[in-house]
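REQUEST
  id: r-88c1
  op: predict_structure
  target: HTH cro/C1-type domain-containing protein
  payload:
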Amino acid sequence: MRVVGHKKNHEDDNARDRQVMADNQARNHSLPSVQDYLTKQIELSGAPQRQIAKDAGFSSPQMLSMIKKGDARLPMDKIEPLAIVLGVDPARFMQIWFNDYHPFYLRLIERSLGATMTDNEREILSFIREASGNTDPRLNEDVKHDLTKAFRRADQP
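RESPONSE
  id: r-88c1
  status: 200
  body:
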């Protein structure tokens, strides 16, 4: 009996290892981690971390420190309130959260429902449709080059 139980635990460990490997392969490494994103957004906000935690509904201000260090995970139900307090797009924060914690599910959602789009991306798409007269323009190399230059200028202060 003991050997069977041990074998079962070993099989469970192998299954978990395979899932972690699959998740790592599914993760979009161009997106920041929750830790990095949260750290940067808290810095950019200029607000005291204690106040951010309180306004987002955390029972303890230390929770944000633990998340930033990787000692705790950001609870899913805190993504939207935290995004609102930090002034960031909740859809983008959710995308980062899923990519970091559950990349397999993010890929499944995006394959089923389409890619996550932020409010800024929706605005850009709406402008492209308007500027093109809703003609569904093709994205050729010249257009890619022009758009890349425009976006690089837009990102500069």
